[in-house]
Design a protein that fits this description.
two-stranded parallel sheet, 19 helices, binds zinc ion
Length: about 550
């Protein structure tokens, strides 16, 4: 029996490489070409020259990269994997306008099955048929011709030389345009597919192995409670709440047209309306906001290989617990007690492998009960994690309607998307208020405080953008400005001689994630040479 009605097409490895590169350049780089040619007029000859040169460069670039790894024996499986990965990549790049840079790749690789499930929509199917099934069908009808070693080497060298020559020639032809484009829009290179995710994966893997080798650099090695603690008998209980994807623009307390924070509004909190996040995605922001380094001296490798604020607090004698309803602490709580609650099966709170954020409050009581001394609990929320905003809140919080009840945002109007997003904020407001009530009830035993800050914002259709993760340098405010709220009990204020009206004055100023490390150390009066009073928000407010 014959597998194919006609004889398979015989081609050389070099021809296959060229064919694959043509496919990638012409079929998979729409986002890159659209970005590179934006604002140009097709009535001008230079636009056609520039577009032609870009296409030649794309083909040559992929020929060069593929020529380095192509071998007859692995050509078809290798290209098949590339075609499938590229089909997924182009789908998300087109749909969500994402740039596949190393930090986005880190996010993709750290995605858990529940998150991935929400991103898979039916819209993916026709895209995969066109961009994966069709090329795969062609690919598997082709047979790669066997040639002598000498001929193969000569052919490979010729292909490398020709594509390198063409690449240089087309680059020189449009050099002025091209260098200006790359200078002004560096991020565009992360739209060149599949080169973008191949490069980013290599970067992430390389830095991952560096991280694994490195012992975390000590931070606050000399940390200890300062003199104001002498003679105090009551323990401190601080809850740090790390929000998710909550943006300042929709935060009721910060002046949004809708009151999305009705419970916090009556909870005597201090609201910070102008706070900038360190990154536009969890993988960047989380390590950064808990580090002493921050965005001002941003160095991802150094942040990921240094101890965090939580390690400093531990050294000063606090018990530290990380409770998680999301995708883990990204190294921030390495070696410290962790309670992953996202896999819980509490029927009222959990379904489809996800739990509502009130799961974070279950068992908090016994942690406080069992605690001997000072305690810092981190609650890592699922918050407003998209695109399935509608799944983030129980029905009781479905106040704004109509909602977008699918993860496929393109099927909804912006109004529906915003309604679902705002309902999720209403629910976060409720979870935070319940946490404050919990701390109030513990005031007989502890001096208590709560700090809430979101990790990054979210785009809800502004400038055609959705979700988050746009490279930091070009990210819009919607993705960078986040809400922050402090609640300090009377006991806490009195004990640390904090002036509340001074703090309210401070809250009106612009701040960023860079201030978190130093403000928590300042509030808890932890002394270390790594503490910088200039970055401590409460610094001027202690009597
Ligand atoms: Zn996040």
């Amino acid at each position: 029996m014959r597998a194919w009605p006609v004889r398979p097409l015989q081609v050389s490895t070099a021809t296959l490489t060229l064919g694959a590169s043509l496919f990638f350049a012409f079929a998979c780089n729409g986002s890159f070409l659209a970005g590179a040619l934006a604002g140009r007029s097709w009535s001008e000859r230079s636009t056609w020259v520039f577009a032609g040169a870009l296409l030649v460069m794309l083909v040559c670039l992929h020929v060069l990269v593929l020529s380095l790894v192509m071998h007859r024996a692995i050509a078809r499986p290798l290209l098949s994997m590339l075609v499938i990965a590229t089909a997924f990549a182009t789908y998300y790049m087109q749909r969500y306008r994402v740039f596949l840079d190393p930090s986005m790749l880190r996010n993709v690789l750290a995605t858990n099955p529940a998150e991935a499930g929400e991103l898979l929509g039916w819209g993916l199917l026709p895209h995969l048929l066109l961009y994966a099934a069709v090329p795969l069908a062609v690919l598997w009808r082709i047979e790669v011709r066997r040639t002598s070693v000498l001929r193969a080497i000569l052919a490979r060298l010729a292909v490398l030389a020709i594509s390198a020559g063409l690449l240089v020639a087309s680059l020189l032809l449009v050099f002025q345009d091209f260098s200006a484009l790359m200078r002004n829009h560096k991020e565009l290179r992360y739209l060149i597919t599949p080169a973008n995710f191949l490069y980013s994966t290599a970067r992430v893997v390389a830095s991952g192995s560096r991280e694994a080798r490195a012992e975390r650099m000590a931070v606050g090695a000399d940390a200890r409670l300062d003199g104001t603690w002498n003679g105090s008998t009551r323990p401190v209980l601080m809850v740090l709440v790390v929000g998710e994807t909550a943006r300042a623009a929709n935060w009721g307390l910060s002046g949004y047209a809708r009151q999305t924070t009705p419970q916090l509004a009556t909870s005597n909190v201090i609201n910070f309306p102008d706070v900038s996040a360190c990154g536009t995605d969890t993988e960047t922001s989380l390590p950064c906001m808990f580090s002493a380094i921050g965005r001002r001296d941003y160095d991802e490798d150094r942040i990921r290989t240094s101890e965090s604020l939580l390690h400093v607090l531990r050294r000063a004698g606090f018990s530290v617990v990380w409770r998680d309803n999301q995708s883990g602490c990204k190294g921030v709580c390495d070696g410290l007690p962790q309670e992953p609650l996202n896999q819980s099966t509490v029927p009222q709170l959990c379904s489809d492998g996800r739990c509502h954020d009130e799961i974070l409050l279950r068992g908090l009581d016994s942690i406080a009960q069992d605690s001997q001394g000072n305690l810092v609990v981190v609650l890592h929320m699922l918050g407003n994690h998209g695109p399935a905003y509608y799944a983030r809140y129980p029905d009781a919080f479905k106040l704004y309607r109509p909602t977008c009840d699918t993860g496929e945002l393109r099927k909804c109007s912006v109004e529906q998307i915003v309604n679902s997003y705002d309902n999720a904020l209403l629910y976060s407001d409720h979870v935070l208020s319940r946490t404050i009530a919990f701390l109030n009830e513990r005031a007989y035993r502890f001096d208590t405080a709560l700090l809430y800050v979101s990790d990054h914002g979210e785009s809800l259709g502004e400038k055609g953008l959705y979700l988050h993760g746009v490279p930091y340098a070009i990210a819009p405010d919607e993705q960078i400005k986040v809400p922050m709220v402090w609640w300090l009990s009377q006991g806490f204020l009195a004990r640390f001689s904090l002036n509340r009206s001074c703090l309210e004055g401070q809250a009106a100023k612009p701040w960023s994630h860079d201030n978190l490390f130093h403000s928590v150390l300042g509030l808890l009066r932890v002394e270390t040479r790594d503490y910088d009073q200039k970055l401590d928000i409460s610094g001027p407010c202690r009597r």
